[in-house]
Specification:
By secondary structure, this protein is of the alpha/beta class. 41% of the residues lie in helices and 11% in strands. The strands form 2 sheets. A 4-stranded parallel sheet has the order 2-1-3-4, with helices on both faces. It has a 4-stranded parallel sheet with strand order 6-5-7-8.
């Protein structure tokens, strides 16, 4: 009887040890922001654990690293981020010797995901291109454009395939499934947004312009070119003039930033509002999360139709 108990105990211990080893071997993938986690989750296999560095409700433009988040970097097998022009707080860490060898930049040198010529950026009626104000020539909000997201997903697949024990066939299959889902969602969104092709849309900042450019939407003005800096009086006056002259202008705001600020700018003007979230805060991190994110943006724009808008 004692022998039987001993054998059972050893078997349970061996099973527990095997489980622990398996758990320890599970690749831990960290992304800087939630939209990147959505892309990783679309490509990653079930045995890969994913998480996001910047918490819900925070912006990568002004986020400050905490000790717990630094530990998350230390525990990650691979780290995906957009690049120095977006997550400025990560620039020193992810380009240095400690984390540089396990971080993947999805925009910038060595990546085609974020490349766009200034001539391809959305323009207002005065011909002014809406370049991003973070200090670079390109808008780093590359994830809102579904075709750029697909390019990023391809880079993610290549990086994940290098992890020890990665199921490359499953990763390839997931990429093809994602490619098909993107095509289907694009077609659906183009149909949904067709009535808004000539709508006068305004954005809080340039995060929206890549989505608008992809779907041929008309962005007439951007309230601030850089959310880290207060816009000048001349720029604000110019945007206010455009709002006054626009036909049913709609301002697309973002939950990460102060609502009172843009209400004061639009006070006394006939402007309607709709809120979209470029950081996908309320989107579940699942294989279908990115297409749900795209749909959430389209739904926010759809609310800009005169019959759907809220003042």
């Amino acid at each position: 009887m004692r022998f039987a108990k001993t054998v059972t105990s050893l078997a349970l211990s061996a099973s527990a040890l095997l489980y622990c080893n398996s758990a320890l071997a599970e690749p831990h993938i960290l992304t800087s922001i939630k939209p990147l986690e959505l892309l990783v989750r679309a490509i990653a296999t079930d045995d890969m654990h994913t998480s996001t560095l910047v918490p819900a409700g925070s912006s990568p433009h002004n986020y400050s690293m905490t000790p717990s988040k630094r530990r998350a970097l230390e525990n990650a097998d691979i780290i995906f981020w957009v690049g120095p022009e977006m997550e400025t707080f990560l620039s020193r860490l992810l380009t240095g010797s400690e984390f540089g060898d396990r971080s993947i930049t999805l925009m910038g040198p060595g990546s085609d995901a974020g490349h766009v010529d200034a001539a391809d950026l959305p323009r207002d009626h005065e011909g002014e291109s809406h370049e991003h104000g973070h200090g670079g020539d390109e808008d780093p909000h590359i994830w809102v454009d579904p075709q750029m997201a697909l390019t990023m997903a391809e880079a993610i697949r290549d990086a994940l395939a290098q992890l020890e024990g990665a199921n490359k066939l499953a990763l390839d299959n997931n990429l093809e499934t994602f490619r098909a889902s993107i095509a289907a969602k694009e077609e659906q969104i183009r149909t949904q947004l067709k009535p808004l092709q000539n709508a006068s849309l305004f954005a809080y900042h340039s995060a929206f312009t890549r989505f608008a450019g992809h779907y041929n939407l008309n962005v007439e003005g951007v309230l601030t070119l850089n959310p880290e800096l207060s816009p000048g009086a001349r720029h604000i006056a110019g945007v206010q003039n455009k709002l006054r002259s626009a036909d049913h202008p709609c301002l697309l705001t973002e939950p990460q930033f102060n609502r009172q600020w843009w209400h004061s700018i639009t006070e006394g003007l006939d402007v309607t509002f709709s809120t979209w979230d470029p950081l996908a805060t309320d989107i579940d991190a699942t294989a279908n999360g990115y297409t749900a994110f795209q749909q959430s943006i389209a739904d926010a724009v759809f609310k800009c139709l005169p019959e759907n808008t809220e003042h």
